[in-house]
Write a sequence for this structure.
């Protein structure tokens, strides 16, 4: 018995040594490549090494329990190939207490979710809106790179944030249809792609075209179209945004949405004017309710 144990112990040592040497060789190889071809952060433009991000992972390693910790941990993992350690650390998840309707965070970090004064005074057509993170820092940089610089590889990691938010706030049984906010045909031709549709498609591909409970993903322009070309809404206040977007969407003729429970996908929730106008049109065509999910949200805290 003693001899067997000794042999087994000796058999394991060379294997452990070989594993260590392989890992060391891999680290040295990566360091050499990064020394010649350093990575450039897609948010701030600085050059960085994966070693710095691994140090951040080790520093922030913890037993993940809360929803915001899960989102922060997921952001670190999926954005590691694209962002430097500083931009990864800048991510701030949207965390309760928030408005139970529009999802805006309250300045006070105590108490339960409840409806905000703005949503009481100006009721939305949407039932509920939720987002992954505050539109700032590395998250804003990643969204900009996808949307304006055609860094299409970012669609998949950003869509993983959408999926995590969905798992936290919804179940597949309460949603019938997942629908991307469409672009107007002219904007689509100029840009060459709809970044929101790419986020939705990446999520659908990972989950399968049909999820448990019957939740399905609509194909591009299958349900909703943007029939009015609007100028960029950046920099406009709430009233101007509402006026600009009014009447911009239309449901495809003959599309039966009666009783459908719809989840509308967008990249950024700013004032909610775009999502609310789309929801208004969907409900006018018979949808039971429309919820909204976005990667990011501007956050003027109440």
């Amino acid at each position: 018995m003693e001899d067997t144990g000794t042999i087994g112990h000796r058999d394991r040592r060379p294997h452990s040594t070989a594993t260590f040497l392989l890992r060391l060789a891999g680290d040295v190889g990566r360091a050499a490549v990064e020394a010649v071809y350093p990575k450039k952060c897609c948010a701030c433009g600085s050059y960085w090494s994966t070693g710095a991000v691994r140090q951040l992972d080790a520093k922030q390693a913890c037993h993940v329990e809360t929803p915001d910790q899960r989102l922060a941990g997921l952001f670190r993992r999926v954005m590691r190939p694209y962002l430097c350690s500083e931009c990864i650390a800048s991510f701030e998840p949207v965390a309760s207490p928030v408005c139970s309707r529009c999802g805006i965070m309250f300045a006070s970090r105590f108490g339960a979710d409840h409806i905000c004064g703005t949503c009481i005074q100006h009721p939305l057509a949407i039932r509920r809106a939720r987002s992954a993170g505050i539109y700032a820092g590395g998250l804003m940089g990643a969204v900009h790179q996808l949307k304006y610089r055609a860094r299409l590889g970012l669609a998949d990691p950003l869509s993983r944030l959408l999926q995590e938010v969905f798992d936290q706030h919804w179940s597949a049984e309460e949603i019938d249809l997942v629908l991307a906010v469409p672009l107007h045909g002219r904007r689509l031709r100029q840009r060459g792609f709809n970044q929101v549709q790419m986020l939705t498609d990446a999520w659908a591909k990972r989950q399968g075209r049909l999820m448990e409970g019957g939740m399905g993903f609509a194909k591009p322009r299958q349900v909703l179209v943007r029939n009015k070309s609007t100028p960029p809404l950046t920099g406009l206040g709430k009233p101007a945004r509402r006026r600009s977007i009014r009447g911009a969407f239309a449901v495809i003729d003959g599309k039966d949405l009666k009783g459908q429970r719809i989840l509308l996908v967008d990249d950024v929730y700013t004032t909610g004017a775009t999502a609310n106008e789309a929801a208004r049109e969907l409900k006018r065509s018979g949808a039971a309710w429309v919820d909204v999910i976005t990667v990011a949200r501007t956050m003027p805290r109440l």
About this structure: Confidence is low (pLDDT under 50) at residues 1-13. The domain at 96-133+152-297 is CATH 3.40.50 (Rossmann fold).
